[in-house]
Amino acid sequence: MRWWTSANFIDTPDVYSSWAPGNRGGESETVIGEWLKKSGKRDQVIIATKVGKPMGEGGGGFAAPPATDYIDLYQSHDDDRDTPLEETLAAFDALIKAGKVRAIGASNYQADRLEEALRVSESNGLARYETLQPEYNLYAREGYEAELEGVAQRHGLGVINFFALASGFLTGKYRSKADEGKSQRGDRIVERYLNPRGFRILAALDQVAGKHGTSPAQVSLAWLIARPSITAPIVSATSLPQLDELVSATRLTLDEDDIQALNHASAG
User: Fold this and answer.
1) Residues 42 and 72 sit within 8 Å (Cβ to Cβ)
2) Which pLDDT tens digit goes with each residue over 152-172?
3) What are phi and psi of 162, to 5 degrees?
4) Torsion over CA: 82, 86, 89, 95 (sign)
5) How far apart are CA 149 and CA 156, in angstroms?
6) What percentage of the chain reaches a pLDDT higher than 70?
């Protein structure tokens, strides 16, 4: 399958991957930038990145060396409560007016602060956050559904949730403590998700996947896509076959019984 016929949105932050030995931050943006220059596909993809987390000295991506004249979506990676919202939004507004950014978004915002940011933009004639990037998946539901979802719907924000597959747990890759060694963070995944609720979710995913002849990962993404407030879930892939599998979720339609089974298994 030619995945680019179905997927054209790339999301990253400036800080990736400053935590790796020898890195300073900006490495992800640099890789994407080099691909953009070599492929000539800049006008065929939507590029989203984020700013706001500490980076190593000298870190940089799209700006060094230049790879694109503009960023489609520039997001606050965190809510910087030490900086007035007016100042943050004015800085974003200036970038939009200069033609360097097309739209801005918020990540990791609480509902009350997102509402406040939207009010500040409106009252000051500044560009507003057009998107929200929260953690949201079949396992992590309450943080988004309780309040953030309502804010997004009232204001018509696009929602592009991260950790759509719960760090790989919702693929069915981790089912026992013996699976810790399947990734560097396997121990943390097993500790967080392998509990009675997690096992209920896996069982429901297996049931629905078996019914449709597909995978738990595809079912997890189809459940997200079916939710009216979700614009597009963000997923990560480490190989082209894996990418093909994930993109195939866009062609999977769950019926009401499927959605109710998943909702029930993942409730509270």
Assistant:
1) no
2) 999 999 999 999 999 999 999
3) -100, 170
4) negative
5) 10
6) 93
Residue 35 CA from chain centroid, whole number:
21
3-state DSSP assignment of residue 4: helix
Q: If pLDDT is split at 50, 70 and 90, which confidence band does 62 have? A: low
The neighbour count for residue 146, using CB atoms within 10 Å, is 10
Each residue of 92-138: pLDDT tens digit?
999 999 999 999 999 999 999 999 999 999 999 999 999 999 999 99
The distance between the two most distant Cα atoms of the chain, rounded to a whole number of Å, is 55
Q: Which amino acid is at 73?
A: L
| Contacts of 133 by beta carbon, 8 Å cutoff, 6+ apart | 11, 50, 75, 105, 106, 107, 108, 159, 160, 161, 162, 234
Q: Which of 48, 240, 258 has the alpha carbon at shortest distance from 138?
A: 258
* Cα-based torsion angle of the residue sequence 166, 171, 176, 177 in order, rounded to the nearest 10 degrees: -50
pTM of the model: 0.92
First to last CA, the chain: 37
User: DSSP state, 156?
Assistant: T
In 3D space, the residue among 267, 260, 191, 193 whose CA is nearest the CA of residue 223 turns out to be 260
Angle ∠(148,155,261) on CA atoms, nearest 5: 45
Q: Locate 216 and state its tokens.
A: 């738990």
pLDDT-derived band at 3, boundaries 50, 70, 90: very low
**Residue from 78, 233, 223 nearest 162 by CA:** 233
